[in-house]
Structure formats: structure tokens, C-alpha cells
């Protein structure tokens, strides 16, 4: 692995980054200095550096329908910027303050109709970004900090969230209630090596869901970055099929599982007959030795074929997603790890670009962002 390119512009630790899909090689980074840096990887220096907040920026998101629109979260606020006219680009044209607690992540759905924002109170706000109003509040799914959120592109009204209560929750946000809850804090006898993984709790620090144009390579999965150092690959449709089959079976018996408010109870637990559908990437196959902080799918090469994870063990792992089906069928995870990159600092966030070189951008705990070339 050659030395990475260093992207300078921040005055404090870089916290997050996103890559443009429409403009090859364009990357936006944000930091604890409240600044956003825009880089064109064809150029030597940052194209634009702007201070947009007086506090650390926690998350960034482009509008998928118009990447001139960028959403930025800081504190309990989401700011909206129009980058089309750079002269006035860094004055927000709209802001949302629906979250009561500090926001951890924001994400837009593929149709550019909704934005989700998760906060320290465990709430998820679904914002209608066309009508500029709050559409729904999702609560009672998480009992602690809600750290991450992703829409499911092939399911128009569903979103997935992860939290520091070790839970992964699939929601129907049109109804405002969970469809399924997976608790990684429960004992997992299906993977006996779990106990020796590391002592940290299985908090969900980040999740990744493939875009629709990646599905031929990645299948309909969700990748989960866990605090115990494990990267879980979960087949979303298989998980939901279990819920449907259980619901159907109960209906045939003339009974149904309901919660105290009369709503069908969400399926819970990690120990069900569908556990074999999950791929468990842990230390035994070269995985992380400490908490996994972020995960992403590859935009370079065959889109969605690779999964990239970064962790507190100062490493970035590149996993071959195409091995997923074979690994599940054989019960093993061999040959799934494609590349290991050792760093000098812990990883805060990473993203990939649809270019042949300098296509893996890593924000570590320094103010200098690194760009690696992965093939």
C-alpha cells in the first residue's frame, strides 16, 4: 500500500466525509472546527473551505436528486446549503431544529423526499425536505443514543437505525413504528467466538445499506459496525421474511402478538432460525480487534462489491461482498477479507469515490484527511 495523499484544510479533527456520485472525485469533509472543506481530487488543494458552524459538525449528506444541495448537522440543527452559487453557498437557505438532543447522523432517501436525523435521546426525526416540515418522529425503538440511520432504497417507506443500546431497528416510518428489532446485546450461541472478540459492548456505531444500482453485487443487505469489533452482514429481506412467516403462522392459529398499545409487536432477538443468513466478520477472519466505527460500500470498480470498515484498532478492512453467499452456504467466512490497511490513528469515518485511484477517503482523529488508492 502506497502512502496516502493528505488532504489539508481543517484546523481540528475531521469528523466525517462524503463523496459525490455525480461529480467524480469531489469529496466534502467536515470537522470539529465547524468547517466544511470541498476537495476535487484532480486538484492539489481544497477548492473551498468554509466555517458554517460554531460547534463540531457530526454528519453530512448530499441531496441525491441534486448534489448542489448539501445537508449539515451540528448540535441539534440540520442546515441546508445550496452550492450552485458559491458566492452565497455557505449561508444556509433553510434549517431544521426538530431534534431536541444532539444529532449523530443524517441521511437522505434515494428519492430526495425525506431526510432522517438521529439524536442522543434515541429519537429519529423524519423530515419532509420538499415541504420543509416534520413528517414523523420515530421513538421507543431505542433506549439509548441513536447513532446511525439509513433508508432502504428498495423499500420506499422503511428506514434502519442503530443505537448504543446494541439494537438495530427496522421501521415503517409511514406508520411510525418498528417492523423488527435485533438486539446484539443478547447472547449469540450461533457464533461461539463472540465471547472472546473483545470486552466492549455490541453497540451499533454505524450501518450501511447498498444503493439500488449495487444490488446485483451486494444483495439486499445491511452492514453493521459493532462496538465489540464485529462487522455483521445481514440479509434484510430474509429478516423480514421471518417476521412475515411468524405473523402468518400466528394468524392461522387465530392469535397475534400485540404490544400494550395494540400494535403488532416487532420481532426481536438475534437468536432466530434465520441467524444462518448473517455473515459474522470478526477477529477469527482477520477482523477488527476493537470497536468498528464506520462501514461503507465501494463506489469504485464494481459498485457495491466491496465493504470497507474502519475501527478504533487503527485499521481499515476491505471485505469482498461477493463472497457473502458462498460463506453463508458453507458456514465459513474464509477469503472474505481482501485487504487490511494499518493506520497510525483511530478511524472516525470513511467514504469511497467512483474513481480508479485515491478512492478511499479516511477521516481519523487528526485534522488531516487521508486518501488511499484501492483496486
UniProtKB/TrEMBL annotation:
WD repeats: 139-181, 285-320
Species assigned in the record: Salix koriyanagi
Domain of life of the source: Eukaryota
Keyword Nucleotidyltransferase: no
InterPro entries, per the entry: WD40/YVTN_repeat-like_dom_sf, WD40_repeat_CS, WD40_repeat_dom_sf, WD40_rpt
UniProt protein name: TRANSDUCIN/WD40 REPEAT-LIKE SUPERFAMILY PROTEIN
UniProt keyword list: Repeat, WD repeat
Amino acid at each position: 500500500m502506497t502512502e496516502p495523499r493528505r488532504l489539508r484544510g481543517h484546523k481540528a479533527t475531521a469528523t466525517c466525509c462524503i463523496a459525490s456520485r455525480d461529480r467524480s472525485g469531489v469529496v466534502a469533509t467536515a470537522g470539529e472546527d465547524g468547517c466544511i472543506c470541498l476537495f476535487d481530487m484532480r486538484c492539489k488543494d481544497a477548492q473551498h473551505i468554509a466555517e458554517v458552524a460554531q460547534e463540531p459538525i457530526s454528519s453530512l449528506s448530499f441531496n441525491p436528486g441534486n448534489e448542489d444541495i448539501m445537508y449539515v448537522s451540528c448540535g441539534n440543527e440540520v442546515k441546508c446549503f445550496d452550492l450552485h452559487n458559491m458566492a452565497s453557498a455557505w449561508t444556509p437557505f433553510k434549517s431544521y431544529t426538530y431534534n431536541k438532543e444532539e444529532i449523530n447522523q443524517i441521511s437522505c432517501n434515494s428519492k430526495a423526499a425525506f431526510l432522517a436525523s438521529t439524536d442522543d435521546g434515541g429519537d429519529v426525526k423524519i423530515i419532509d425536505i420538499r415541504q420543509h416540515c416534520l413528517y414523523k418522529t420515530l421513538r421507543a425503538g431505542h433506549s439509548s443514543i441513536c447513532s446511525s440511520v439509513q433508508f432502504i432504497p428498495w423499500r420506499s417507506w422503511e428506514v434502519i437505525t442503530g443505537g448504543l443500546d446494541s439494537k438495530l431497528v427496522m421501521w415503517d416510518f409511514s406508520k411510525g413504528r418498528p417492523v423488527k428489532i435485533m438486539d446484539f446485546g443478547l447472547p449469540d450461541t450461533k457464533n461461539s467466538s463472540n465471547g472472546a472478540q473483545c470486552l466492549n459492548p455490541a453497540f451499533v456505531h454505524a450501518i450501511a445499506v447498498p444503493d439500488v444500482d449495487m444490488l446485483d453485487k451486494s444483495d439486499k443487505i445491511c452492514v453493521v459496525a459493532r462496538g465489540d469489533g464485529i462487522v455483521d452482514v445481514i440479509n434484510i429481506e430474509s429478516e423480514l421474511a421471518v417476521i412475515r412467516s411468524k405473523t402468518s403462522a400466528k394468524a392461522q392459529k387465530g392469535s397475534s402478538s400485540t404490544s400494550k398499545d395494540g400494535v403488532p409487536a416487532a420481532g426481536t432477538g438475534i437468536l432466530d432460525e434465520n441467524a444462518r443468513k448473517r455473515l459474522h466478520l470478526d477477529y477469527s477472519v482477520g477482523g477488527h480487534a476493537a470497536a468498528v466505527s464506520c462501514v461503507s460500500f465501494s463506489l469504485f470498480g464494481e459498485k457495491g462489491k466491496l465493504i470497507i470498515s474502519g475501527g478504533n484498532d487503527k485499521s481499515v478492512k476491505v471485505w469482498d461482498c461477493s463472497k457473502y453467499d458462498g460463506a453463508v452456504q458453507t458456514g465459513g467466512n474464509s477469503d472474505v477479507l481482501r485487504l487490511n490497511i494499518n493506520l497510525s490513528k483511530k478511524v472516525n469515518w470513511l467514504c469511497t469515490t467512483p474513481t480508479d485511484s485515491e478512492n478511499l477517503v479516511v477521516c481519523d482523529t487528526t485534522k488531516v484527511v487521508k486518501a488511499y488508492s484501492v483496486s
